[in-house]
Design brief:
The protein contains 6 helices and 7 strands, in the order βαβαβββααβααβ. It is α/β, with parallel strands linked by helices. The chain has a 7-stranded mixed beta sheet with strand order 3-4-5-2-1-6-7, sandwiched between helices.
Length: 185
């Protein structure tokens, strides 16, 4: 089974809490069970400060967010002690910031930032490898859970190959794993 994980945090890339620990450990755990995992995370400023073996790919495109199109630069990283692929979604406006989400208060444009990240992640999947996954989306937490409608529009657009459209019509499983959902209690 092939699994695409999309998360706003994952160790060792970026962490504010337990979500990053779970997401960072899950690909290797699933790999031991025979799954082929790919992880997609934002290319935050702090990620580049960690001296990880991150490489810029030749993949560039733009995605619509509101009335604008935001440019995407895709990076890749393969860690020596892990077998799964990691792609990082880059955009300086969205992710070149002092902290992941803001300080005492969230950044005012966090919704836009993570809509961008979600759409860019799925566009990357549609362009590169969506037909290869058995379980295509494994979304983590509220920053990425709103992707389902966008995923369907990306997969069924004219940009996808016939193979991708056929894969979309098959009974593929989508998963949303929401950790630490705030309930207001």
């Amino acid at each position: 089974m092939r699994v695409l994980q999309i998360s706003s945090e994952a160790t060792p890339f970026a962490k504010t809490g337990g979500l990053a620990d779970v997401v960072g450990a899950l690909p290797d755990s699933l790999g031991r069970e025979g799954c082929d995992c790919t992880l997609v995370v934002p290319a935050y400023r702090e990620v580049f400060e960690k001296n990880l073996p991150i490489k810029k790919t030749d993949i560039k495109f733009s995605v619509p967010v509101g009335k604008r199109n935001l440019e995407v630069t895709v990076y890749s990283c393969t860690l020596p002690d892990q077998k799964h692929n990691v792609f990082l979604i880059g955009n300086t406006h969205c992710f070149d910031r002092d902290t992941l989400y803001g300080g005492a208060e969230d950044y005012a444009d966090n919704a836009e930032r993570f809509i961008f990240f979600s759409r860019a992640s799925l566009e990357l999947a549609a362009r590169r490898f969506i037909a290869k996954w058995s379980t295509r989306y494994c979304r983590h937490d509220t920053d990425t859970v709103g992707e389902t409608q966008w995923a369907r529009s990306v997969c069924l657009s004219e940009r996808c190959s016939d193979e991708t459209a056929d894969a979309e019509k098959q009974n593929k499983m989508d998963m949303a794993l929401i950790n630490n959902l705030y309930t207001g209690c």
